[in-house]
Amino acid sequence: MSPDASWLADHIRDIPDFPQPGIAYKDIAPLLADVDAFRFTVDAIVDHFATSEVDHVIGIEARGFILGAPVAYRLAAGFVPVRKPGKLPFDTAELEYELEYGTDTLEIHVDAVGPGDRVLIVDDVLATGGTALATVGLVEKVGGKVVGLGFLLELGSLAGREKLAAYDAHSLLTL
Predict the structure, then answer these.
(1) Region for 117 from its dihedrals, namely left if φ exceeds 0, alpha if ψ lies in -120 to 50, beta otherwise
(2) Mean pLDDT of the chain
(3) Comparing C-alpha atoms, which of 31, 65, 56 is closest to residue 173?
(4) Rg of the chain, C-alpha, whole Å
(5) pLDDT per position as a tens digit, 68-108
(6) What are residue 18's phi and psi, to 5 degrees?
(7) Alpha-carbon distance 155 to 166, whole Å?
(8) What is the DSSP secondary-structure string of 37-65?
(9) Could you give the angle at the alpha carbon of 10 between the alpha carbons of 28 and 82, nearest 5°?
């Protein structure tokens, strides 16, 4: 049984009209600043995937880095960043995807994940699922196998989980 994470909602604030009008940005800075909330978040993601064999944890730019790195450490796995174009210094694979307010592109180093490597993807928010699905596509493009996706927060009304139905997608909170 998963621990009750509902109290974490008190550590997430809405920033209206950011990054553009009509979007309510979920600011997790208060959660990250609270040692108990941050520790609980990392531990709860790790606990859910503790029986999965994980070679690499991928953190999606940028808040996925913050959560993904300690999850990788706890799972004794390597950490791999997935970034926006032009931020990685080596040869990359890329994928363009749709998000709730436009399109974007993500990149991964072509040698970051080897054929058959088992990968856990971590990000802060599951919204429409476009970013997560693009990251799944990148992992598969370079030969990896996605064992699951872990999120702090899911925006249930945006139905992103539907795009990830083929994967073990775990969110601590759904708003």
Answers:
(1) beta
(2) 95
(3) 31
(4) 15
(5) 999 999 999 999 999 999 999 999 999 998 766 678 999 99
(6) -135, 130
(7) 19
(8) HHHHHHHHHHHHHTTS--SEEEEETTHHH
(9) 20
Cα atoms found within 13 Å of the Cα of residue 116, Cβ hemisphere only: 0
Neighbours of 166 (CB within 10 A): 9
Backbone angles phi, psi at 96, to 5 degrees: -90, 145
Q: Give me the amino acid identity at 173.
A: L
What pLDDT is attached to residue 20? 86
Domains and CATH numbers, the chain: 53-174 (3.40.50.2020)
Cα separation of 70 and 152, whole Å? 13
Burial class (CB in 10 A: 0-12, 13-18, 19+), 163: middle
Burial class (CB in 10 A: 0-12, 13-18, 19+), 89: exposed
For 120, phi and psi rounded to 5 degrees? -110, 125
φ/ψ of residue 72, rounded to 5? -60, -45
Calpha distance 50→138 (Å, rounded): 23
Active site residues: 63, 100
Whether the Cβ atoms of residue 130 and residue 111 lie closer than 8 Å to each other: no
Alpha carbon distance 75, 131 (integer Å): 23
